[in-house]
Amino acid sequence: MELALAPETLARWQFGITTVYHFLFVPLTISLAALVAGLETAWVRTGKERYLKATKFWGKLFLINIAMGVVTGIVQEFQFGMNWSDYSRFVGDVFGAPLAFEALIAFFFESTFIGLWIFGWDKLPKKIHCFCIWMVSIGTILSTYFILAANSWMQHPTGYKLDKVTGRAELTDFWKVLTQDTTLVVVFHTLTAAFLAGGAFMVGIAAFHLMRKKHIKVMRTSLRLGLVTLVVAGLLTAVSGDLLGKVMFKQQPMKMASAEALWDGQAPAPFSVFAYGDVAKGHNTVEVEIPGLLSFLSHDDFSSYVPGINDVNKAEQEKFGPGDYRPNIPVAYWGFRWMIGFGMASFAMGVAGLWLTRKKFWLSQRLRTGDDEVPHLALTKDKALGDGLAKWAWRLAVVTIGFPLIASSWGWIFTEMGRQPWVVYGVLRTSDAVSPGVSQGEVITSMAVFTALYAILAVVEVKLLVKYVKAGPQELSESDLNPPTKIGGSDSDDADRPMAFSY
Amino acid sequence: MHLHDFWFVLIAFLWTGYFFLEGFDFGIGVLTKLLARDRRERRVLINTIGPVWDGNEVWLISAAGATFAAFPEWYATLFSGFYLPMLLILLCLIVRGVAFEYRHKRDEERWQTNWERAIFWTSLATPVLWGVIFGNMVRGVKIDADKNYVGSLLDLLNPYAILGGLAMLALFTFHGAVFASLKTVGPIRDRARVMASFLGMIAAGLALVFMVWTQIDKGDGKSLVALVVSAVALAVALVANMLGREGWSFAFSGLTIAALVVMLFLTLFPNVMPSSLNESWNLTVTNASSSPYTLKIMTWLTVFAAPLVMLYQAWTYWVFRKRIGTQHIADAH
User: Fold this and answer.
1) Global pTM value
2) Which site among A85, A164, A424 would you substitute to test the B interface, given the most B Cβ atoms closer than 10 Å to its Cβ?
3) Which of A291, B71, B265, B326 has the smallest number of CB atoms closer than 10 Å to its CB?
4) CA A462 to chain centre
5) DSSP-derived secondary structure for B252-269
6) Rounded-to-integer distance, Cα A8 and Cα A429, Å
7) Which residues of chain B lie closer than 8 angstroms to A446, CB-CB?
8) pLDDT digits (tens, 9 = 90+) for B61-80
9) Chain B contacts in chain A segment 136-155 (CB below 8 A)
10) Bridging pattern class, strands A271-278 and A428-429
């Protein structure tokens, strides 16, 4: 069969398309749930209207987003069985448990409490209402944890044995699967990166309104919250990324050598800034490097030896038999760079934004602004950006919304493709994982249908987001400001009063 | 009782929960065309399940996830074997979920009409597809020695399975109509009751034939008990509906579905997916299950999580216990 249409290739393309697409919504869901919960808590505690307005505004965008996250998530769960039945048979004993945990603990939290939150404005006292969104947030975080524990096991299988009779991987230590360093570090990295996405989203949309001098109070608060999130999350993403890198250098040297297009082992090893190579011959034709940095990234010193692609390939051939154990190196190399580049760029935007919009620090009286004014973008103590430049700064902030999404997409492409040809590293090859009973035509059909439907839904979703972004926060009604004091809403009320929210 | 037998029971329980709960969600979706006379009434119906449909759907995610963990071979054969029906279910669930969330977000007539059509068709198709899948699963399909499905799509479209699909659809729609009468107020409530009587008769016909066929083909004493429970429950649900006892009617329409699902699982046991080619190729609770260690962990999870889930989901229904009518639907949103 032609390679381009081999069942494995098709199934991988479908998995790649549906997973990257799903993960556009996931980071925003995780971070916006927590940020909205924070805003609602601020409202409950201070009673300030702008917090409630912000809660409702960001909550609406959050809901448009999570709807897509939920429905595209179901595909993920079915897909293992549909397209990767041999994988499912082989790993189910280990891999299934975290998935079941995710459903029974995390998804039930998320889905049940989101319903309460959406429809509960006139049914729940405000503290309980606020509690519901926190439950949603906890659900998203637990879900992250369990699914990444499953993924980490594919990256670095542990706590299992290969059973000779059944010929499959069997769980021996679930605790180890949940707490191995790969899991912990990946969860840390994914969560921080998720907040990078939410921070950038808030900053971008707040900038959009502030640039037009609209909804200033709510948007100033949002801008500030977004910027702080962006900076803190950016720092932590870098820290966790560094930790993850070190774990991966140990566990999957091939992935990291490919990320650096380091063909032959070196001590000290340089960090590659740019490379153009010849994959067939196994070397680079052009390279720009920073000496010693790669040694530092992998081992915390500037002189250690880092094995190259050719070395690891040879070692794996000795261990697993003849074959090519190299992933797609250009994808790994550039994926790694796009991930870091876009992630860092959004962090830099956060730092710049926090500096330019600071309230008092090293700022002359003239440039300070009140709660209801658009902040000046103050470069130095006495000097703000000119109108033209300021406009571009705001616009750049809007564009930043996309940066973390691009970064995390490439992060996943890098880590999953960098593990090839393995689906479970060192244990099961991707080519042995596909469904033998599913025909080429069936996979082509499903891939085409998913791609088309997802494309249509993307247009629908983005248009809807734009509509609600442009509309801005709504004025609060009497009933918004006077939430019920009793669960279920008070009975003495006008029984025919319309619901606060209805589909 | 072996752990894998116990897990067979739990998987059956999760599916039963799913069909009981999302059953009336699907029914409501179908009734948006059958029962509602205008947009406002459609919205009344949709809003009866508004706060809960998403939580109900997680029962499916749990059933599938737990099958993966407890019976990997079952999961693998089921999902890869019924590839195209599963694909259609996924498409329906995607479109349906988005439709509920997005329908009201724009005022344009075409936008709303399109999403309403989507709600109707996806709610109609999904129960049929599940019925076809479960019918085939019980009846046995062409599974080879390597536990892979080797039949074609046409093999799945046999009369028995299609009857199963129609029975599911009719039962869910009846269940949905009873739910609508329980949760609404005003003229739509009365019409829901009338429609429930009518739908209940159709459901009774289809479900009875399907169950009797199942019983003759595969049944034993235990499945006969489930059959009788299901049939009696349906009769009680119909009578209660006519007497205007909506709560009782709903409990019994739910029991009808639950007993039918239980019956299907009883006829399966100890198989999980029988092979129509060779009995020794059957997937059974023993040869499809996970290791005892994994099953033990899964048991702890479920014993802890499932009661908690039922508790807070029940609380959700209590929070939204008030009936709704057209007067409760706001114009602008």
Assistant:
1) 0.96
2) A85
3) A291
4) 18
5) HHHHHHHHHHHHHHHHHT
6) 11
7) 83, 87
8) 999 999 999 999 999 999 99
9) none
10) unpaired
